[in-house]
Amino acid sequence: MSSAPDGSAEKTTLVSIIVPVYNAAEFLEECLRSILAQTHTALEVILVDDASSDDSLRICEEWARADARVRVLAEEHGGASVARNHGLAVMSGAFVTFVDADDVLAPDHIDHLLGAARRTGADLVTADLSHYPSGAQPIYRPPTRVRTATPDEALAAIVSSGVGFASCGKLVASTVFTDLRFRPGMPFEDLEILPRLFAKASLVAVSDGVTYGYRRYAESTEGGHLELLKSAMFEVLSSGIAVAQERHGYRSPAANRLTVGYAMQAAKMLEGAAAPGVAREPGFDRAYRRFMAQNLWVLQRSADLSRTYKLALLVSVAWPAAFVTGFRVARRLKSTVAPNLRRASTGAASARRS
Fold this sequence. Notes:
By secondary structure, this protein is of the alpha/beta class. It has helices at residues 25-36, 56-66, 80-90, 109-120, 151-161, 189-200, 221-227, 232-248, 253-272, 284-300, 307-318, 320-332, 337-342, 346-353; strands spanning 15-21, 43-49, 70-74, 95-98, 104-105, 124-133, 146-149, 170-173, 204-216, 228-229, 279-280. Helix 5 (151-161) runs parallel beside helix 9, helix 9 (253-272) runs antiparallel to helix 10 (284-300) and helix 10 runs antiparallel to helix 11 (307-318).
């Protein structure tokens, strides 16, 4: 099914775009230009300044004076979750989406997402992001296909692949947020809200289009996470597992599948420590061992993981440094064994499921 804009989406449908702003003056104008140049013009742009100490608030106010679709909220510094919640409290659009103040959108981004929602009847639309380094340009891809999935299926795919955790690049019916908010002070707020968000949705549309440019640089939130692995991630992964168990039942197949996905994200984090320039904060290994020990039983019973990788996971719990060293050696040898090492062969996995 094509999701390319063809005029079928209601051009009068108001879409709220919430942009948390904190010391983003360097990139903010580029971001706002891309938002206000959208081919879908029925927009409500809510800029929430989180007590910036640079010129961000002034820039926001200038754009609000120039375009009546822009609204500025200023608040005490509370972080992205509080800023987004402030925007959610005052929005009036039928749909809402989030944009980070250092990112950019393709001109048809809203038309792309809204078109997918209208064609499928979905109340949650997801699409991939174009990750690009600062100083370069994002590479967009026109949408060619939209598939639908249940919220449980879509969430399982994201957790398993590790792609799609960001709140950005999604379009959500405002009714989904009626009694749903980001948790203030929670680290990795996008990952934390994800299972709660999907639990509130009734149907998910998944587009293959890429119309959101997600900027990467050393000082960005994502860039910092990639260079310093933080033990707070395990609290968030544990909360995702808790939601899965509450929703589907403790040790149910659906909860186990999500538990494996979240635990594998933890293992991949530790694998990432083998890359040059990546460090683990003090206490990371201890938090990793505690988290993995709690979920090791479901990993060892998974039909999707190879026996060799299950053994490697046992090593990682007993001795995280040895696990990292093994992957560091593989990188130096330019080995491709690590990704294949995780997966059980198709035949073996099928046999164990039967």
